[in-house]
Protein 1
Amino acid sequence: MREPRITQVADGVHFAESGSVNWALLTDGTAVTLVDAGYPADFPALRHSVETIGHRLRDITAVLLTHAHIDHIGGLPALLDEVDAPIHATAPEAAHARREFLEQATPLDVARNLWRPGVLPWAVHIIRAGALKPVKIPTATPFPAGGRLDLPGNPVPVATPGHTTGHAVYHLPEAGVVITGDTLVSGHPTSIKRGPQLLHPFFSKDQGQVITALDTLAALDADVVLPGHGGVHRGPIGEAVAQAKLGL
Ligand SMILES: [Zn+2]
């Protein structure tokens, strides 16, 4: 197992980077909310991240998903073997996690893009990480509507459709943090850019919608961005969005 890099960005807010993808841990006393869950092969790193911050897997009282791509739900089947935690997302994304439909770049989409810098080594790496495993989460359900969730960290889901139909980010108003999933990232193995940016359009259902969703992000009060891919980005989210738009 490659040890994940763990960064505490605020009281009760930890960010874990496995090298391929990221997740976040929100703690409140003994309870933990997990946001996203890595690739299937990331499960040992997921466990390690929880233990490194002084908790056990059984302290996870809920899992929130930004979206149901394999690199964000892959660790869940192994987790759910050990922990009885509810899995929540927006209503469309919960259906996506249950695999009532699939909105994900297919192996053919990836094959068509193998000529791009970094795509071939990335594809080899993610196949090893379990990218082709047919993971579905039958217990995924929508979180209650109405803003702030009564879970450790009190995250506020904000819909940002585009990367997937039901994609959401999670705003932590007291901490000034936003967990942006794949709506806004700060790097990716297939990108030569560093800093706030969008994923290549072939990864997303509707890149135009992703660009529109950036305005939703820019309106949040936050100065720490925890993306699905790339490292922590510090600075006002409005400036991060402006930087991402410059790269379009
Ligand atoms: Zn994704």
Protein 2
Amino acid sequence: MFDLKGRRAIVTGAGQGIGAGIARHLAQQGARVWVNDVSAEKAERSAAAIRSAGADALAKPFDVTDRAAVVDALSDAEIDIVVNNAGNAGAHDMQVGPFREMDPSQWAAPIDVNLHGVMNTTHAVLSGMCERGFGRLITIASGAGVIGLPIGVAPYGAAKAAGISFMRHMAAENAALGVTANSLALGLMEMTEVHDNALVERLARSIPVGRLGTGDDVGPACVWLASDEAAWVTGQTIHINGGNVTT
Ligand SMILES: NC(=O)c1ccc[n+]([C@@H]2O[C@H](COP(=O)([O-])OP(=O)(O)OC[C@H]3O[C@@H](n4cnc5c(N)ncnc54)[C@H](O)[C@@H]3O)[C@@H](O)[C@H]2O)c1
């Protein structure tokens, strides 16, 4: 079950965090994984860690918001599985605050990576997937793309919602051609840059399971969605959030 041998996968933004975990799980199931990141150094470090555990991974650095770079890297690559994980505000710091106080220049980064990045990768691989009769599109979304939150992330939430909607349309357009498209809406996850234990403990208390999520909670869901066994699962948004029932 869930054997990915012979499949070529790419995980975007997999140089660290959740994406690195997803790439590791896909590779452990036999996929040949391209570890993408805008940072070549991070991509190489993450791919090397997977290789050192005996699985197949290669660094493929490029910026998912750069359409020409995406086309160059992916259009002839016979990709079977795409996990659109690059997110947050992309290569920029996330600008958090009430929307009424935001400068319009602060909206572009989250929309660019979470919507245009997903469209860029999808457009580059989709025709090949349809011609070969197999494809798996998986977009890493967020609870913030499903419900409203008073935490100052409106442009990010709107961009994640757009990614979810885009997957639903890809599912409907391509279902008969063997291509599925789904989203995973994540809850509060461990963050690479956050080392404030008191904050982490406070956040963990708000989650029924009692801890923040990790790549090991998301990777197995990607393995399942990428597998032959998930052929009848498409157009869905699956919540992985430690039991947070508000989403
Ligand atoms: N961390 C959370 O609490 C949380 C919650 C819900 C959803 N998410 C989503 O999960 C995904 C992973 O989040 P994370 O916290 O592990 O991210 P992260 O910021 O720790 O890592 C993201 C990686 O993506 C790379 N990247 C950024 N812009 C890129 C681009 N344009 N092209 C290619 N690579 C790029 C970065 O260099 C980085 O290595 C994101 O889509 C995020 O929106 C995260």
Protein 3
Amino acid sequence: MILVTGATGHVGRAVVCRLASLGHDVVAMVRDVQASSRRLLSGIVLRVADYQRHK
Ligand SMILES: NC(=O)c1ccc[n+]([C@@H]2O[C@H](COP(=O)([O-])OP(=O)(O)OC[C@H]3O[C@@H](n4cnc5c(N)ncnc54)[C@H](OP(=O)(O)O)[C@@H]3O)[C@@H](O)[C@H]2O)c1
């Protein structure tokens, strides 16, 4: 499994698409699930995290 950070950004989206097209098990780290679903391929597993928010 490969976790892609910045997955909704210019670089991250391309990386997610490429890894998924190669058959890798990709998980996208996102801040906003709703916004991410418009920007990423459907079927990509999402995990919510924000570098600015930690406990
Ligand atoms: N683009 C290039 O040509 C290029 C070239 C060399 C190096 N880089 C480097 O590669 C990295 C990504 O570039 P990019 O052009 O893809 O940037 P981008 O399009 O601005 O994307 C930034 C990504 O980081 C996420 N992000 C921002 N703040 C975050 C936080 N606090 N917690 C979690 N995620 C956060 C954004 O999520 P949201 O969607 O939620 O905002 C988005 O997915 C940068 O460090 C940049 O300096 C880029």
Protein 4
Amino acid sequence: MVRSWIVVMMLTCSDLVFAGVPVTDRAQDLLFPRAPVQTTAAESYHRELQRLASLGKLDVDKPRLLQIRQICSRLIAQAILLKPAAAHWPWEVHLTSDPGVAAYSMSGGKLLVGSDFIDKYHLNDNELAVALAHEIGHVIAEHVREQISMAAGFEPRVPNRTVNVVDVINSMESDISVFLRLQPLSRLQEMEADDIGIELAARAGVYPAAIISFYTKLARQDGGRSIFDTHGPSSQRVEFIESMADYARPVYAASYKKNVPAYIFMPKYHVNTASRAASIR
Ligand SMILES: [Zn+2]
């Protein structure tokens, strides 16, 4: 999950938007417009890329970067089929050797993957695809936008009074009571990202067995920090994921009969890595 937002904008409380989440079809209250949330995320993402580049920790391992983008290109293509608006988002995928980064996504399709995370869990391509599909699930479900919207709703609403988003963001990052009130939604979103991610992975041709092996590796972790710190007890997750692997098998079987498409990244950000030769089967 994204944990840092800086949004500079003013909105009225009448901007409430109701939407459904891909795959789960859960109704969401989305108070804030999409565009400024994504713009702010992109600015934050690019600042982080610049910082990592200045340290010599960005996109150094070119073969691995290409491999990750090939995996993502197939997952993002499926994400766009579930969320057509995402076709217009400038998706980006980068790799860092910063040991503090596992894998995370930001609004609008910005992903960052840590090479240490891949090495720590000895992830093969299919297992890495499961992790990335989870992150892409967060993106197309617009989970960050939903959290910002909910946090804004904690403030008393006064007619004709605008909501200062900077104050909302600050409260999310510094007010423990706001953090705790967001936790039920955060837990729901993590489970939902699993649901969406498994659907995406299966459609993209990822072996269902990789779902079990990936999450089993995480469950065996020794308490170190990971992207799944907020996902609840490992035992519950493994039980849940085994049921999801059962769900994924027929989806995967159907995908195997199709020519699975690949997303083509914008040249502004990437060279075209969406090779037809790319395969994660
Ligand atoms: Zn997550």
